[in-house]
Design brief:
alpha/beta, seven-stranded mixed beta sheet, homodimer, 8 helices, globular, two-stranded antiparallel sheet
């Protein structure tokens, strides 16, 4: 298992910040300029003290009565989350999910730019998906080193995920986002995040199955 | 927030079962017929007692020395997870991610069949994506009731997610898989699962950002 990375914020707080961000964006669209922690808490079914604590991570504190300036808070979240710094990434595996991620415009908001896609299927190599050419996975090392890419996305079948991760690390990748339903054995210091669509679906289906068959 | 659903298994155990399943599948492909809990634990960096406990949920216990029959265990996991029962689902929102999920073949393994897709964009309504016709979201209620669909997938922008969820529930949907980065306010008894691609990416990026800027 990958080692625990040191984060200067708790994981649940980190996961709530994008939710605040989306809510604040919708408020901004409606012309709202300031908002209090209790108002955010009420809208998102949280408690005000938690909202205040979460937001304090970004370095912003609200003023009495008026609360937070929405524009200022949005910018602070963007900066804190590192969204304003765009990172290049490569993706290995161009099946359904790989191609979807390749064309997923929303990644731009989060500052992620997928620059190259790789596959080992000779029928796919050389083809364009979402205006990006698919390269053979044998070119991974050369490409990553030349472009100095640090982030790799894995969308290959579970049984190939470990091998792909190892090739990525050899190519200079230090952050891996793995969508294969496999547990990877990674060296210390590699940043790891599971993108668990299949597992998420399994949990939903199991709950539904149990409910319908109770 | 949605109410806690009663599950007859802990959430972490439930999330590990698909991982065991994939590992066992790869072993089966290599011609392996039986496997012990310590061997599974070693391959997946877990401890044998945990593997035994997790697997016991499926009703299967290993034999001394030989362990589990792989075929039998695979079938038990499929049954326990409800993968052998295929459920129909509808999806609302046919942007990049919606279309990707619409064409994601792997859902069949998990017993999910997306039967209809909906959008409110008149330029999309009537078009075919992955051989499925896009319907106007106004037809949601009629379609869901006629087809008796219980599962709904939300892939609309965050600001529309709550409204879509409410329309789904009015249409008879009882299980919601939400990919919009929004916290939904749902009535008691609705099964809910967050498919948090954006949040997952945010966490990865934040770790990388902190590492590169330490």
């Amino acid at each position: 298992m990958p080692s625990k990375e040191l984060l200067n914020i708790s994981l649940p707080a980190l996961k709530r910040l994008p939710v605040y961000y989306n809510f604040l964006k919708s408020q901004e669209k409606e012309g709202v300029e300031t908002i209090t922690a209790p108002a955010i808490a009420k809208a998102l079914k949280l408690v005000p003290i938690q909202v205040r604590k979460d937001i304090a991570n970004t370095g912003i504190t609200g003023k009495p009565k008026t609360g937070y300036g929405i524009k200022e808070l949005l910018r602070a979240i963007e900066d804190f989350m590192g969204w304003t710094n765009t990172y290049d990434a490569i993706i290995v595996g161009t099946g359904d999910l790989g191609r979807a991620l390749l064309g997923y415009e929303a990644f731009k908001t989060y500052g992620l730019n997928i620059v190259k896609a790789f596959d080992n299927d000779p029928n796919k190599v050389g083809k364009l998906f979402h205006n990006k050419e698919i390269h053979h996975v044998d070119e991974l090392e050369t490409c990553c080193k030349r472009l100095d890419v640090k982030t790799g996305i894995i969308t290959v079948p579970a049984e190939n995920a470990q091998e792909v991760a190892e090739r990525m690390i050899k190519s200079g990748i230090i952050a891996i986002w793995n969508f294969a339903p496999a547990i990877l054995d990674l060296p210390e210091g590699i940043i790891y995040q599971q993108g668990d669509i299949g597992i998420s679906l399994s949990v939903l289906k199991k709950k539904l199955f149990d409910k319908l068959n109770r």
